[in-house]
Write the structure tokens for this entry.
Amino acid sequence: MRPVVTPAVLAALLAAGSMPAAAQLTAPASATSSPAIASTAGPAPKLSAADQKRVEAIQQYQHDLVSVVALRADPDYLLGAAILARPFKNQTPGLDFDSLSQRAATAPNAGPAAEWVRLDLCGSKDDCPNAKAFEFLKKNAADNAAVWIVAMDMAAEKKDAKAEQAALEKAAAAQTYDDYYGKALAGVAKATEVLPPLADTTQGAHDGQPDNGDGVRVLVAASATQNHLRPNLGPVVDACDKDAVAKHQGTRQACLKLAHTLTWGSSPIARAVGLHIQGDLEPAKKAENDQAARNVAWQVHEYSGLLQRALADPALASQWLAAARNGGTELSLMLATLRASNIPTDAPADAVPASAGSSGQ
């Protein structure tokens, strides 16, 4: 269901100076049409011999992390090891994504995040999402709207209007929205703490590339989680469009309840979609919701700039890694990072966000 970070993508990040988080946190305007799983992979740039050597050293560091972290029994570390192992082919048995994510899911005190990342372990198109993982989530994370939005997307794909409506109502009845990105990132960030990157991972770094150990850790953690599984919010936007609601008045209240949950959910994309629905269905509050949406766009842009800077700023990298290891949500991590760098979370009036290179100046 989703591509993983390949050597070509890692090379592109180093050569082009493009942080994976910047691509992952797409602008709210595109959130309604984003696929459930988005790829940011593009053509691999041509690297110098020195840059290629550094790419290979970072990949080896990631591979070594998997081998060492796999010895742990803690579900967070095992989840991190599983995500770090995902790009590698022909892994030693027990060190592959499937084995490690199973261990994470069955470890004492494991939460739903490990089952969530297994949703795209599919033998065929008919087994997507993974039936066993999805059944677990419906039973054990029934109060998470993200689970029912996945069900809603499945029903929409099958053009099953009755099942789609039922899933919408369950999503609206849920109290939270969490796509578990924060938990997945926490596991990976914790895993990177187990081994220090060797000198060859930073040797000859230039033009904002990782030139310190924590900068390498930031790159590895952000790139390993850049294609984290996200529910497709398109069916929610379609069902809660003002014209669609006008034809099915019974859905208006469900849509507003779900929109409220999304605005206080785990991700900036979910917040942007929730604000869009609220503004569409409550015209009197449209200006308020539009301003909040502009704030989200500003926050995403400035946060992406900080992540870019963190590659070559050891203090900023260390601060971000510490916050990531706390296991909050993606949105809470973004806001905490901005505040720690004294960047306002409200967009300046009529301001265009500062360039990534000058964020926080």
Remarks:
- Residues 286-310 form the longest helix (25 residues).
- The chain has one domain: 7-358.
- Residues 7-358 form one domain.
- The chain is about 60% helix and 0% strand.
